[in-house]
Amino acid sequence: xxxxxxxxxxxxxxxxxxxxxxxxxxxxxxxxxxxxxxxxxxxxxxxxxxxxxxxxxxxxxxxxxxxxxxxxxxxxxxxxxxx
Length: 83
What we know:
Blueprint: H1 9-17, H2 22-29, H3 33-41, H4 49-59, H5 63-66
Protein name: Helix-turn-helix domain-containing protein
Domain HTH cro/C1-type: 11-66
Organism: Deinococcus petrolearius
């Protein structure tokens, strides 16, 4: 499951540092705010890499900042669509 390999605390910390609400991030990513919340707290099952990548892009996070398992650095990460 993807969420078990993420340092989920960094999503909330960055969102707070940027002064963004869950709704702000949801609006910018096109995701439901419940999806953003589940990513931050790790509930509701896994999320796909496209979802993680979209939130990372909005929050300006890098893969190394969100990955709790350095062994995953070797995995391909999907390309992000231009903002």
